[in-house]
Fold this sequence. Notes:
The protein is 37% helix and 17% strand. By secondary structure, it is an alpha+beta fold. It folds into two domains: 3-107, Phosphorylase Kinase, domain 1, CATH 3.30.200; 114-329, Alpha-Beta Complex (Aminoglycoside 3'-phosphotransferase, Chain: A, domain 2), CATH 3.90.1200. Strand 5 and strand 6 form a beta hairpin. The radius of gyration is 20 Å and the shape is globular.
Amino acid sequence: MSWAETLGRLRPETVDVAAARWGARQPTLVNAGFNHVYRAEDHSGPLYLRFTHGNLRDTEYLTPPLTWLRHLHAQGAPVNEPLASLDDQWIETVPQKNDLFLATAVRGVAGPRLSDLPPTPALYRAFGHAIGALHQASHDFVPAPDMPHMLDPALPGVFPSWRQFWHQAQEQARKEPVIKRTFEALSSWVDAVGGPAHGWPDELPLTRPGLGLTHGDLRPGNAIWTGERVVVIDFDEPVYGPLANDLARAVFEVPRQQRAALWTEVLAGYREVAQLDAGWGQELPRLLRARAALMAAWNISESTDLTQLRPVSGTLAPVSLWQLRQNLLSSEYDG
């Protein structure tokens, strides 16, 4: 099933129906990726409506991340506020002929994304501080015992683990020699530090040093600078695993010549509000290589012609399969 084709069936009148359920008006499309996101206005100001299709992501998938986001906001973490509809529903189902779309909403946050700003030390220290506040607010979060695993109700736990994602991607990784070698080199380490085999919570202790719920995609594009602090957005795919993964993702796409200095600032900001074992501060090269290999494997589909990889342009260029493979071949993530 094509995500683009399925979400492309979403009609303006269906968006209007969903917006009205939050008392919002004048929805305007701002992002047409793995979700379709619309900006609208209600009596309190801007809000963002996020749409998916029931055949792509169902209520069981959407509920755990939304529950976590509600907890984080209630704890005062720097996240955008999740919004219930006028009927007090966190997820609204919106039928459209033979399709069923699902909508959620969050309050808008004013300010530019960090990806649109120069990567200064002060900004990345604030980024680290925000990540630390997010992790600290997650410390006592435990999902309801009857909540199913967001990817597969047959699996134990609720949230997928980094280790689970890694093993799920191995079949695709084997199709490309550079990615295959990187997986082989890092798999024993991921097994050791990547959390449970399938999901969290599991039968082991809830709290484990260095591990916890992570945002999963904490790139600068998912962080907003308000002028006073960084606010984290887009809680779409939380993952249980090394907390340092969120920190490494924050600097994954910054220029290599700036990365070490910005990593120092991210760590310093993080440690203003949360603890992190000193050993993780030395793991940036391995965290970056693992992230690159995993993203590269995710980019390989059944139709991918690995003999025709070429550079791409635009915002996705740094995380394209060609670029990730080139980075793994070079020393981009070393030192």
